[in-house]
Amino acid sequence: MKKSLMVLGAASAFAFASAAHAQSSVTLYGLIDAGLTYTNNQGGSANYQMSSGSVNGSRFGLRGSEDLGGGLKAVFDLENGFSIANGKLGQNGLEFGRQAFVGLASDQFGAVTLGRQYDSVVDYLAPLALTGTGYGGTQAAHPFDNDNLDNSFRINNSIKYSSVNYGGLKFGGLYGFSNSAGDFATNRAYSVGASYDFGPFNLAAGYLQLNNSGTDLNTGGAVTNDATFTASTQRTWGVGGNYTFANATVGLVFTQTILGGLDGIGESASGTSNGLSLINNSARFSNYELNGRYQLTPAVSLAAAYTFTDSHIDGVSPKWNQVSLQTAYALSKRTDVYLQGVYQHVSDTGDSGIHAVINGLSMSSTNTQVAVTAGLRVRF
After folding, report:
1. Which of 157, 200, 205, 354 is 20 to 30 A from 179, comparing alpha carbons?
2. What start and end residues bound the annotated signal peptide (predicted)?
3. Among 3.50.50.60, 2.40.160.10, 3.30.300.30, 1.10.530.10, what is the CATH number of 27-379?
4. Contact partners, residue 8, CB within 8 Å, separation at least 6
5. CA 263 – CA 228 distance, rounded (Å)
């Protein structure tokens, strides 16, 4: 009898452990993007360089979930960014600089997560712009990535809500706390966004506001050492739509970023060693993008985008014209090779010190810059 009870108890314990294991999962994932880039002008000279993340930032992460029953589960994601060229951490040396969050997700009501996360403009609008996809990525970003569609920065101390899919409609919002006692609004952030898919159409919109981001007023706030601009306020909004027919997708995206109390543009965005210092003034960037991609064969894709950016900054009104082209060949489901070219021309810069600078590269000494990259991407 005792032996029977022991066997029954052991079997029950094993069954319970197996069921618990089946209800939890942890996935290791990642992407490595390495290439060779030629640039016609970086600081006055042509450059041949090995590049990391010319299209997609190299990363690896741990993503997990635990089933809590009743359609509810606990979720988390820890994602690291790095350079495959030298092994250094990305996002200014943060261990999990791309994402770090934990939360609860419901099959019926959506998810609430807390940590370092993407804003709603990135979540909903960016996938409609070529820079927010693997068809253009880093180098296809709008000047200085002024609208953050290439997610140059994330939001610290943030709580985010993401809805489930209601017949094609998804929406959400985020709030990033300043985490400063007695200074609630200094270096905080908030955003909202939505997307709607119906048939071949996809529409999206998003809004983001930052207060005192990139400044030294509160270095523990929502946006700190990876801020694109040093400004008292940043308001970014945009809308977009695309249409898919047969093997082709065409899209239009409009975004506008308005900055108050602008002091400078960060090193990574400006492509300079010390950033660009500007007169404390307002600035505006209006970006108009036309993009398209075509699946020529199951293995071969073609993509292109044209962006016109009209701006007012530091007493002048620079105008950018940028064209990006890409073709990629899939060697397998996880590995592809690509060839990408980007051309940028800026005019009406006056004596501001602004020259052409393709995102992710160093600034040209003239108003024109051309970059060509041949690369390899491996996903796991």
Report:
1. 205
2. 1-22
3. 2.40.160.10
4. none
5. 11
